[in-house]
Amino acid sequence: MENVPDIMNYGGHNVVAEIAEALSDMGYIARYTLLNASRFGVPQMRDRVILLAFHESLGITPSFPAPTRHVDLPPGYSGTRAVAFKNIDMLCAGTFIEEPVGPPSLPYAVTAEEAIGDLPPITLHLEGKLKRGARRFDVVTRYDSTRLPSSFAADLRNWSNFESTEGISDHVIRYLPRDTFIFREMPNGAEYPAAHATAVRLFEEAVADLKAAGHPVSQESRDALFRKMVPPYPVTNFPNRWWKLRRDQPSRTLLAHIGKDTYSHIHYDSDQARTISVREAARLQSFPDGFVFRGTMNPAFRQIGNAVPPLLAFALAKHIKAMLSEAVSARDLVAA
């Protein structure tokens, strides 16, 4: 079972501990922990609770895979985790396993640039060629031979049974004309307060340019220009509503909300001045390039945000297989 960390403190209840207790009553041995996907080769700092349970007849006490990557999580994660862990010691003692964290000697987590840096740039919006409307996946964007893939990107291009040799058909973005210049000027790693301040600065520069050119600027026209250039959201509400990726770090968590907007994941390349594409979201979630998303852009974004990262699922699957194989071998040895 997989769920968000808040399941450990939902309405004051550690729901996953209660599930583990119920499974115990039904003859299962259950354990749960918190895993961060970036520690298993996913270029995304995605915290998720994982519960594993085996029937007691198998004689297996569940454990969890060891990380293959090292990452230093940003400060914001500690606060979220403190709330989630609040009820760990109160219910079902013994079923929670400390999160496996690899040593700093492990290779560093896959970064955003390693994940999406080989994909062709998107500049249609800068050329005035991007229009409103549904985005369908009916045009193949060919890989750029001058942009060599990282080992991570090469693996996703060549994933067995999901190979993609020519390019991708879902490298499409949203039409956000107001915000192009804001995206370009925002520093990497910046959040909404910085985006809003950037927009206000650009607005003030535009007003100054109009005045310098001898154009009268009435209060009415000034207000209209402000509404056209500056996002309307208060900076105190949801400060992480916008976020610009850093090249040298994994991405933040992709949520299903990207089905509505993608401001939470603005591309780190200021020259492209845009939010991420569907395929870039899929890369950050570790989907192979040959995996096909059905429908149009918004549903595809939502599917990606809701998904378990394939590489995290793969790490768990391999570990479960190893535990089962060991149990079978032990049983065969006893039988012999």
Polypeptide structure, described:
The protein has 336 residues and is mostly helical. It has a domain at 2-108: Rossmann fold (3-Layer(aba) Sandwich), CATH 3.40.50. Helices cover 34% and strands 7% of the residues. It has helices at residues 15-25, 75-84, 112-116, 151-157, 180-185, 192-212, 219-229, 278-284, 297-306, 310-335; strands at residues 2-3, 28-36, 47-55, 141-142, 167-168. Strands 1-3-2 form a 3-stranded antiparallel sheet, covered by helices on one side. A two-stranded antiparallel ribbon has the order 4-5. The longest helix has 26 residues, at 310-335. The radius of gyration is 24 Å and the shape is globular. The two termini are 35 Å apart.
Quaternary structure type: single chain
Q: What is the level 1 CATH name of the domain at 2-108?
A: Alpha Beta
The helix count comes to: 10
Q: Name the shape in a single word.
A: globular
Major β-sheet, in short?
3 strands, antiparallel
What's the gist of this structure?
By secondary structure, the chain is mainly alpha-helical. Helices cover 34% and strands 7% of the residues.
List keywords for this structure.
336 residues, mainly alpha, Rossmann fold, 3-stranded antiparallel beta sheet, two-stranded antiparallel sheet, 10 helices, 5 strands
